[in-house]
Amino acid sequence: MDFLGPVGLLHEEKTLGCSQKGLPCPSNSSELVQKCLQQFKVTGAQLQQIQASLLASMEQALKERASPVPAVQMLPTYVRSTPHGTEQGDFIVLELGAKGASLRVLWVTLTGTEGHRVVPRSQEFVIPQEVMLGPGQQLFDFAAHCLAEFLDTHPVSSQSLQLGFSFSFPCHQTGLDRSTLISWTKGFRCSGVEGQDVVQLLRDAIQRLGAYNIDVVAVVNDTVGTMMGCEPGVRPCEVGLVVDTGTNACYMEEAQHVAVLDNDRGRMCVSVEWGSFSDNGALGPVLTTFDHALDHESLNPGDQRFEKMIGGLYLGELVRLVLVHLAHHGVLFGGYTSPALLSQGSILLEHVAEMEDPSAGVARVHAILQDLGLSPEASDIELVQHVCEAVCTRAAQLCGAALAAVLSRLQRSREHQTLQVAVATGGQVFEQHPRFSSILQDTVMLLAPQCDVSFVPSVDGGGQGVAMVTAVAARLAAHQLLLEETLAPFRLNRKQLAAVQAQMQEAMARGLRGEASSLRMLPTYVRATPNGSERGDFLALDLGGTNFRVLLVRVATGGVQITSQVYSIPECVAQGSGQQLFDHIVDCIVDFQDKQGLSGQSLPLGFTFSFPCRQIGLDQGILLNWTKGFNASDCEGQDVVYLLREAIRRRQAVELKVVAIVNDTVGTMMSCGYEDPHCEIGLIVGTGTNACYMEELRNVAGVAGDSGHMCINMEWGAFGDDGSLGMLSTRFDASVDQMSINPGKQRFEKMISGMYLGEIVRHILLHLTSLGVLFRGQQIQCLQTRDIFKTKFLSEIESDSLALRQVRAILEDLGLPLTSDDAQMVLEVCQAVSQRAAQLCGAGVAAVVERIRENRGLEELTVSVGVDGTLYKLHPHFSSLVAATVRELAPRCAVTFLQSEDGSGKGAALVTAVACRLAQKIRV
Ligand code: 0WK
Ligand code: BGC
Ligand code: BGC
């Protein structure tokens, strides 16, 4: 019978004592009392066991190991730093769940001055039982009404109010204002809320009421509010501990240890949710029959077993069950049990705290028991106090063991030998129970001697802390809004892209007709792509991209073999005299020939010259203007083949036959066309950007013949130089253009290509810093430096696998002080800039393929595009975004993008080979 203990008896014979039931009153009452109280004794070894097992569960949950299901949840709260003390403003705080059946609304003013606190105005509302157990909508409507009632009685000035929602239940958070309830605890069991976003439920309720314009900007667990409410003192408060109706703790974990956060860095406050700790191995031995009885009768049997041994909602009930047990065994109240004593929940935390408090005195205990319909003897009172003491001491010890586990975890995550930390404590059990805190502290000292801990009682139950988090959330939300406003012009929609496509098609037609157009549509005198019969050894030069290359290209039956060497073009040469530049080029050729044992051989040479040239023939190209950071004098308006030949002549030693000059787009098309005959378009997205394609000869003004095709170098980098892109150009594009060596020129290129994207990002970061959105508004010297933010950073930063860590590493190398939020914002800036670039490039390609389709009067066009360029090749998303934009804007064209492996040097050699083959044919 005893095993069933009080529970069994409870139901049938509620009010009869052993004497009344004719049961023999136990002679060994003290033994029975000892046996009963002994159950609440927890040994040092058991406490260590609990500490170790809780620590193991915490670490398992951090690693997101699914099996076995961790006993604790370790929920990220998206609070990444403890208060700076700079937060300021007026905030509303709505507290639900921290204090059982009560809801509190506070008006908190943060002064932003350390140590200067304004006492919050607050109002408490009792939540009716039926609301705590009813439909969720009813609970949130109740909360909205309380808010309105509070605001009605506390007139507030500002129209839009920012609210922090302190919601003290286990939630999966995905942001400061996005939180899904996992399960109710502590006497709450509203339907239709578990699995829902509680912020949205509150927003909907406030909306339904429509009384006030309140913006719910953050949801915060009460432990976090407690921690954040702690005045920044000598030691940062990095742990928040609540023992109120329920119990829980949070602490600042290293974000990289929280698996769900994808390798983030910095810190993240984690809510342990230790209430659900239920490792039978560790807890089994300390769970008493009374704990099982209490759990069995509770709203959530089997859940929150640890909380039910510590939380204020349960301590009174535990005491009651023990008193009933002892009374039934005739060792208390003469075996008499009153209806009040037999009714669940009749002994509250404050009763236990008072009855145990030696200063309360016997009279007070007597009064409390009398209120329960009992008439205690002095011995009863003493025994009742022992029972209260046993129950609360155990609660404090268990809580101490749990806190010791958290401190050990904190010490491990900081890799510190010793740990100095402050723990903010809050909750009625701390406030009401005389000895709880000291027992807890002794237990911590016993179990975590290497941790030097100070305890900071929370002054207002975390209201200030919740307001702090709300202030941070409000700041982040405001920043996010400013970021969105700043990036909005970079988010191009289908209509805008279709307009760019249409404008480009018109500009192409005008350029081909020789009318005014920002697209020069330059004939290249390449009329055919290779047919595979080309043969021979050719030299090729590749100038205009990131690297200057000299190549030996052997075109044989078995395919094309390439030997090449990269040479640098120093800025002083690229921006020096033309003679110096071409002499440097010839020096490289000679060096290459020496190294390849080609000295003295006169091989035909193809010259990839990636700048706008008006070609008069295959081997004559007048440079129209430099681009991409080149600015050598005395070249513009000159035939660059002539300039090269002059340099060769000056060098005397070498014999070179310059046969063809091609643009890198043409070289790329030819190189890919050698493998795929459908390749009729060449695209470069590298330092600069441009495209060429096979146009109908009949459409090319100024070139004789109207059958067949001619490859046209569009020089689309200059698209929009006539202002036609004005509607898309942003203030950042204007800054980049003004600071370039060719302002007003190459506007399309300056929105797309590698030479400029990093600069656009840098200007946006400067702007966001000036708005206080980034780097706490501190103007950062290094960000003032041109080209310090390389375009290759975008490719690295946007790589899916290592996003945030990469951002930090790159920006920390640049010497930028970075918070996680800053890192996220820099990533979003890079994404917006590169996405626009890829979409604009896609709109350009769509214009070209549609033109070819229309030229040929085809319903459907199948065509390939040969592509080269560092940005296109290295950026993780650029190529797929280009292809997606083309599919959307030119659905009747099946477009394949072929990444050129050997660069346009091979293409230049093939053009040379075709020219030599055609020249050969004429000669024979
Ligand atoms: C490699 C080609 C070269 C072209 C370059 C463009 O061989 O002709 O100019 O790509 O890409 P960038 O090097 O500017 O990134
Ligand atoms: C909840 C926690 C809360 C604790 C203290 C527990 O029941 O699950 O989220 O922090 O009570 O209020
Ligand atoms: C040049 C083009 C070249 C492109 C890609 C532009 O700046 O004007 O001729 O094709 O860069 O390298």
From TrEMBL:
Residues 239-472, 680-914 form the Hexokinase C-terminal domain. Pathway: Carbohydrate metabolism; hexose metabolism; Carbohydrate degradation; glycolysis; D-glyceraldehyde 3-phosphate and glycerone phosphate from D-glucose: step 1/4. PROSITE patterns: HEXOKINASE_1 (PS00378), HEXOKINASE_2 (PS51748). Transmembrane segments: none annotated. One of its GO terms (biological process) is intracellular glucose homeostasis. Pfam families: Hexokinase_1, Hexokinase_2. It comes from the Eukaryota. Its EC number is 2.7.1.1. InterPro entries: ATPase_NBD, Hexokinase, Hexokinase_BS, Hexokinase_C, Hexokinase_N. CDD domains: ASKHA_NBD_HK3_meta_rpt1 (cd24090). GO terms for molecular function: ATP binding; D-glucose binding; fructokinase activity; glucokinase activity; mannokinase activity. Residues 33-230, 483-674 form the Hexokinase N-terminal domain. One of its GO terms (cellular component) is mitochondrion. It catalyses: D-glucose + ATP = D-glucose 6-phosphate + ADP + H(+); D-fructose + ATP = D-fructose 6-phosphate + ADP + H(+); a D-hexose + ATP = a D-hexose 6-phosphate + ADP + H(+). Keywords: Allosteric enzyme, ATP-binding, Glycolysis, Kinase, Nucleotide-binding, Repeat, Transferase. Belongs to the hexokinase family. Catalyzes the phosphorylation of hexose, such as D-glucose and D-fructose, to hexose 6-phosphate (D-glucose 6-phosphate and D-fructose 6-phosphate, respectively). Mediates the initial step of glycolysis by catalyzing phosphorylation of D-glucose to D-glucose 6-phosphate. PANTHER family: HEXOKINASE, HEXOKINASE-3. This is Hexokinase-3.
